[in-house]
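Tokenise the fold.
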Amino acid sequence: MANIVDARPDNIHWGYFEAARGPVMEINSGDQVTIHTYSGAPNVTPDDSGAFTVAAAQRAIHDQVTRRQVPGHILTGPVAVKGAKPGMVLEVRILDIELAADWGWNIIRPGAGALPDDFSEERLFHIGLDRARQIGKLPWGQEVPLAPFFGVMGVSPPADRGTLTSIIPSDFGGNLDLKHLVAGTTLYLPIFVEGANFSVGDGHAAQGNGEVCVTAIETGLNGRFELIVRDDLHFTMPRAETPTHHITMGIDPDLDEAARQALREMITLICERSKLSREEAYALCSICCDMEVTQLVNQHVGAHAMLLKERLP
């Protein structure tokens, strides 16, 4: 029988991560699970008289789920994985992502984003999504290609951290907003509680590096994941892997420090996977590694380092 976690009120935690929230499903390591998500509070949701369809389940979430942190994301889960223990790593293989809505949204808010003082009026944009063509239709007529991914994927933080906002990413993952985590890629998350307790949300149909106005094309997505407990890996920060690249991440209130974290993590990865010294790995990064801004808008900003797999000796 397929493992499916629907985005219904009893499977939702809105705006927060915490170890105290128990799992809504438990699976074996190596099993696949499909998780459904929605995105958007009532103030950004189209009314029923317009051109877009808002799912009844999303309206039910608005009506029945307590929003614990404002702002914050509508998250589905968590899903526990048997055998996961603190100190291990959860390997999250992202097998498939599909649109769950025919619309998305983007909003500019005064005082927010990478240019908080440049825009004095709130502007909400609703964006049509063409699933067949994988195109977003912007309100001014432009079409943009879609590359769906989940902005938030995370495990439960340690119990002693209490309730944490879903806005700020951290070592447990969360609001990473890493645009490269599309179908066919893998995310690695350090585990802090028994079962790991994996949750997902904040669907993005398309986003640029930086996510500069705070929002991408926000939308509901359905994802199919394979969750694997790795007792042979021991990371302190999330890592990712695409078919072509190794990716390491840094998160900090200061962008320079986030970049240093990501770079140090990449040097560590290179030394783990090759016979190079730290000095040689540092030189290799300068020659072959790309440093990119992940996001500039989640209170703690993100940077990531990308190394082509074929450049790893």
User: Anything to note?
Assistant: Helices lie at 56-64, 255-273, 278-288. The CA atoms of residues 71 and 274 lie 43 Å apart.
